[in-house]
Each structure stands twice: as C-alpha cells, then as structure tokens.
Design a protein that fits this description.
- By secondary structure, the chain is mainly β.
- The chain has one domain.
- Helices cover about 5% and strands about 50% of the residues.
- It is built from one helix and eight strands, in the order E-E-E-E-E-E-E-E-H.
- The protein has a three-stranded antiparallel sheet with strand order 1-8-7, with no helix packed on it. It has a three-stranded antiparallel sheet with strand order 2-3-4, with no helix packed on it. It has a two-stranded antiparallel ribbon with strand order 5-6.
- Strand 5 and strand 6 form a beta hairpin.
- It is elongated and about 50 Å long.
C-alpha cells in the first residue's frame, strides 16, 4: 500500500496543553493531488502546501484506484501498488 500525505498537525511546544500551532483554512484531495491551506493562531500568517504525484511501474505511468481522505490534520491518498495487484 502507498499513502502519500500532508500532515499539518503541528503543536506549539510553548503553549499550554500542546495547543495546535495553526488552524486549517481549507484542505482537499483528488486523484494524484492534495493541498492544505492553514493560518497560524498567533499572527494569522497563512501558508499553503500542495502535493502532486504519479504512480509508475517499469518507468511507465499506471492508473491505480485510490481512496482520498481529509481529516482534521492529514490530507492523504491511499493506493494499492500495481505490483501487489498483479500477485493476487
């Protein structure tokens, strides 16, 4: 199984109760892509990060079914590698 992801669960070590460092503004996933847009709690500084990936086998891109998910702190796309499918 292959699961590219973005994890924005950052905690401020100086804060009480391990307070999260930022608030999620927006996050999304789609096949082969994902992004997170967040804002820091203290200064309202905004940051965005994205991923774009491909699955290949023997240097050729392959299409593999995926399951995208977005939680409170993780944007993830889970895929079964082509090799594992061919061994079934």
């Amino acid at each position: 199984m292959c699961s590219p992801y973005l994890d924005f669960d950052v905690k401020n070590s100086d804060a009480n109760w391990d307070e999260l460092f930022w608030d999620k503004v927006e996050a999304s996933t789609s096949p082969n892509k994902g992004y997170v847009h967040s804002r820091t709690k203290k200064t309202s500084f905004e940051v965005a990060v994205a991923m774009d990936y491909q699955v290949s086998l023997n240097n050729s891109m392959v299409s593999v079914p995926s399951h995208e998910s977005t939680s409170k702190s993780i944007v993830e796309s889970t895929r079964e590698p082509p090799l594992a499918r061919s061994l079934d």
